[in-house]
Amino acid sequence: DAFVLSAACPRPIRFVLFADCFESKWVGGFARLFDAVAISPSKARDGIRITANALKEGTVVCVFAEGQLSRTGALCEIKRGYQMMAKKGNTEVLPAYMDGLWGSMWSFSEGNFLRKLPQTLRYGVTVAFGPPIPWNVDIGDALRSLSVKTTEDREGRLMGKANREPEISGDLPRGWTEMRDRCFEKSEAGRGMRMNAMQLSQVHMAHRRTRLLVEWLPEDDLSGILGVLWPLSVGATVSLADGLSDAAILAKVSREGIDSVALRGVAGREDLVRRLRRKKVIVWTFDEVGLSDGSFFGCLVENSRVASFARPNPDYETTTMLPQSGWREGRRGKLLPGWEAGKFGPLDEEGFIL
Fold first, then answer.
1. How far is CA 157 from CA 150, 161, 188, in A?
2. Lowest CB count within 10 Å: 30, 182, 318, 328, which one?
């Protein structure tokens, strides 16, 4: 993140990093080279004082306000230490949002950090800077607004795959050709579908090794988003269940080695969910409810667009070991990157829709 921001910013940046980072051979060398500020919970006041003095001298200081790498792909809870630094430094806060690093070896995509081969040799990374805001204004809303702009930029990259199709397991469903053509229309509806698929590709749900089953409904935009564009954007293999009974879905899951299922609702389908979980299959439900209970994970849908996502709680170890939630009881999923805060209702501190 520091390398990307340094390349994007026309002025030199002084970074604020956890003190533990200085113990790493590579990160520590970079930190000392760029005169980074070390901060730790036990000596937070010293870090704030050094940072405030640097700001008063006119230095550009970067604080990673989440305090950790995202393990879900979405924004983590914003910590408030940056506000104290800006207040004492008598300066405003310039929000910056980076998009495109999720999926790289430098992210927790696919369930690990660094220990995976790159999907490509070049990643299209976008850095968006917003206007300065007062130190006492929550930066979370500003960052989500910037994520809308970067998602709009990424939509054009998916158009570059208009002549390709996702890897499909099993037979094609009814209306496949018409839906595929609709996905790449140069219309507002087609653009909205592509943007929504890119939003899904930015979070920890499906990836290149995923074998995904999607319940297919002909002439429904959500079928195109989930069954065509989403797997195409992440490189997943997709199996399309067109009008299948729950028993037929179970058989298809076993026959095709499916590891993730996207249903259109789970009401009255407790037996299906239970059997899928026994097979260690992740169950998502894309509906107008968006609730999760730990056996299935709700993704809120409004007007055939996915607003939020949920997933099992991540358990990967990190330097800070700060907790991150994949789902929360009574919440309607975590707002996807690329949506304005408040569009689908108020958010809690972690970005889940209330």
1. 12, 7, 16
2. 318
